[in-house]
Amino acid sequence: MTITIPSTTTFAVHDPATTEVIAQVADGTAADARAAVDAAAAAFPAWAATPSRVRAEVLRRAFALIVADTEHLAALIHSENGKSLDDARAEVGYAAEFFRWFSEEAVRTEGSYGESPAGGTRTIVMHKPVGVAALVTPWNFPAAMATRKIAPALAAGCTVVLKPAAETPLTALAIAELLTAAGVPEGVVGVVPTTAPAEVVSTWLTDDRVRKVSFTGSTDVGKVLLKLAADRVLNSSMELGGNAPFVVTADADIEAAVAGAMIAKFRNAGQACTAANRFFVHEDVLDKFVASLGEAIEGLQVAPLISAKAVDGVTALVDEAVDAGARLTHRGSTDTGGWFYPATLLVDVHPGMRIAREEIFGPVVSVITWRDEQAMLAQANDSESGLAAYVYAGRLQDALRIAEGLEAGMVGVNRGVVSDPSTPFGGVKQSGIGREGAREGIREYQETQYFSVDWT
Ligand code: NAD
Predict the structure, then answer these.
(1) What is the domain extent for residue 302?
(2) Domain-embedded: residue 425
């Protein structure tokens, strides 16, 4: 028998709106990480063998318990992440829906039975859980990024170990408790918060019992994990950074485009991988769009950013753009005392500027003017990122033609939101590998096996 002594040191969690310490959390070590895999590996055979209907009902109870606990979870998200209570409540609803969706998918893992074209053989195809999955999530959606992985993994019959971001461990810990209350057996879900992410995650990725890694976060860290995963040819899913273009055509409904821009840009103070980053606005509607969006921005007070470092990063991007010729036309107000940056509107941005090439991850609209559709598409696609994109156009055909021309995994067509548990969320190019949600989501946690059966 091995005895693991849980970590006795702790780390502080801060409220970004006040910078005050709101909790101390046990700081996970490599030993804690190994203990979590011990538990997950021990729990795997029984959970994988549990009838899918039973697993589905556990997930459905998890959905109900999360919804019932909305106010508590929203308050936790609000205090450790800083987003507004309304945004936090919306996140809890979105996070819960992954359990409802995957409770429905858990029982639909049908394979196939077919005749080989050459004759003499029948082929039976089935899907099996991949095994223990290591999950790593960011701070910007502390509930939803965790449930978008845990729900399909459990639906498939996998057990999981999760490392939430050190900025926001409280929500993940609260969800783990609700999962226990929903009937998730001991060891099936383990959560290891830590300030040593490389140590904990590399412990998992080099452990022969771990058969899957699913990561959401920055492209740079995703590359580090992919290199580590390569040594074990580990099944890998990657949800990485974005740099979403937001296209407005000459005949777009400007009121609708501005309403969509407010959501696509300012949800979570711009700290979303799907956040609109580069606004390509047709020159004929530029003044109208800027005036109308500017008015909305001046009345806006956004939530704080996650850290002082994040504020410094956004400040540098904006200052550099202004020095290079961009014009700052409108600004919102901010609270004081926390890590705030005001909603900001920049026009005359050029595609070569750093603010257009890098993910801003803050409440800044950068507007690039366009006239020729092909040239605009070439600029929009001149990026290694390809996660979300948005198009506002008067004619649906134009919107769809432009949407098809955009190199992105997801395109909002005349709407400023793309996330939905029933859709295959994910990116192309360096924005990621694999999809979360939809039918595809569960396949990320399954291996395909077939039997080739003699039929002579
Ligand atoms: P991050 O990459 O810094 O951190 C993400 C996670 O990785 C955290 O849990 C962190 O502790 C961990 N981590 C950091 N260094 C590590 C290492 N060396 N080894 C192992 N783990 C490590 O990203 P972030 O700042 O938390 O989140 C913002 C990024 O996430 C943005 O780029 C955003 O676009 C992206 N994101 C993508 C999606 C998506 O679905 N594609 C969703 C949300 C966020």
Answers:
(1) 244-420
(2) no
